[in-house]
Design brief:
With 376 residues, the protein is α/β, with parallel strands linked by helices. Helix content is 25%, strand content 34%.
């Protein structure tokens, strides 16, 4: 007679093979319709296979390669038609940006057996992270590449997060867990959000003022979608908000639109509009903030567990730049120079120096640049 332990081993191995092959239908067949799934980033909990399926598809889309799913250790406890498995999984692969990633994922999986076989009714996934040392746990050489049931994989190597950019928005752990995003781990284990600017500029650093002819929108769309992956809050000035929010709310309701995923994420995000005079416009997920810009942003960065995005306009962003509040500059440079116009850097008193983190050339001649201010 086959033991419950052996059955669960085979069941979870089949599930890992579905992940590796990015076979969404096979993967979803492992889950009960009413599954409850706990993730490590908001919304933190997914209920039902419809929501979970969307989560997994987004995860699959971020990898160029197959997704590694080597079970390093599996412990099963069960009786009758119920079983609980504790798993340590070595996951990784090649992201769409060409980066290779590898990390450990822990999973606690609750299974129930019916006449149709075993199904996962509850799963809780997490990443082993040492908050005090700002270190995540990665596989030691030779660890984790074992068959289901392999023993002895207990020690985890810590590695320093020197350049966490590949972990920022693109790593998704076993079975849909969003991995370590780009955050600062402060003393005491508190996670801070980062303020990210996404904005178009001309070659001479000015507001393009509608100079968008020939822009490679597909590349911008994909970059924008990935940038939103680690954020749950958008801050805006009132002048930008009155057009920005209604536009993306409308786009989110257009099925089949190539920008719908970006629009949906913007529409669902918390939006904070800074204004001394604007009354409540009735926009969804929007609040009006009348407090001091710098003080509010600093508070958001210390209380948010995800990142914050700002899209413009020039005067609003200029105030953030002057206050040293922006952690990441994602600049879409248009191949045009205007000679005169508005600059987000016009209020700087001293030079602001940057480290280049990423540069992507587009077929249209536009360049997508990711800069971060140099540390003092």
């Amino acid at each position: 007679m086959v033991s419950i332990r052996s059955e669960i081993h085979a069941f979870l191995y089949s599930r890992s093979e579905a992940v590796r092959a990015k076979d969404i239908d096979q993967l979803m067949s492992s889950y009960a319709v009413d599954v409850i799934y706990f993730d490590i980033v908001p919304p933190l909990q997914y209920v039902g296979t419809a929501a979970l399926r969307e989560r997994f598809l987004d995860w699959f889309d971020r990898y160029r390669s197959a997704i590694g799913q080597d079970i390093g250790e599996l412990t099963v406890t069960g009786s009758g038609d119920v079983a609980v498995a504790a798993t340590l999984i070595r996951s990784g692969g090649t992201l769409k940006n060409g980066r290779e990633v590898e990390f450990w994922v822990r999973a606690t999986t609750c299974c129930r057996r019916s006449e149709h076989g075993w199904a996962i009714v509850h799963e809780h996934v997490s990443l082993p992270v040492d908050l005090e040392s700002r270190s995540a746990h990665g596989p030691r050489a030779g660890q984790g590449r074992r068959s289901v049931g392999g023993r002895g994989v207990r020690r985890l190597r810590r590695f320093r997060i020197v350049d966490p950019s590949p972990l920022r928005t693109s790593i998704h752990g076993a079975h849909g867990v969003s991995a370590l995003r780009h955050s600062n781990f402060e003393h005491g284990g508190h996670v801070m959000g980062r303020l990210k600017l996404q904005m178009q500029l001309t070659v001479d650093g000015l507001n393009p003022e509608g100079q968008n002819d020939g822009l490679s929108w597909d590349e911008v769309r994909d970059y924008s979608r990935d940038l939103l992956g680690s954020a749950d809050t958008i801050i805006l000035g009132a002048k930008t908000a009155v057009d920005f929010i209604p536009h993306w709310d409308t786009a989110a309701a257009k099925p089949g639109d190539s920008w719908q995923e970006v629009a949906r994420r913007i529409a669902q995000a918390r939006k904070i509009v800074f204004s001394k005079t604007l009354e409540d416009p009735g926009w969804s997920n929007t609040e009006i903030e009348r407090g001091d810009l710098a003080a509010v942003v600093r508070r958001l960065k210390t209380t948010n567990k995800q990142d914050i995005i700002v899209y413009g306009g020039v005067s609003f962003v200029s105030s953030l730049v002057k206050g040293g509040l922006i952690d990441e500059f994602h600049l879409f440079v248009n191949p045009v120079a205007l000679g005169k116009g508005k600059s987000i850097f016009g209020a700087l008193g001293d030079p602001l120096r940057f480290d280049l983190k990423k540069a992507v050339g587009c077929n249209s001649g536009h360049v997508l640049l990711h800069y971060e201010p140099k540390a003092d």
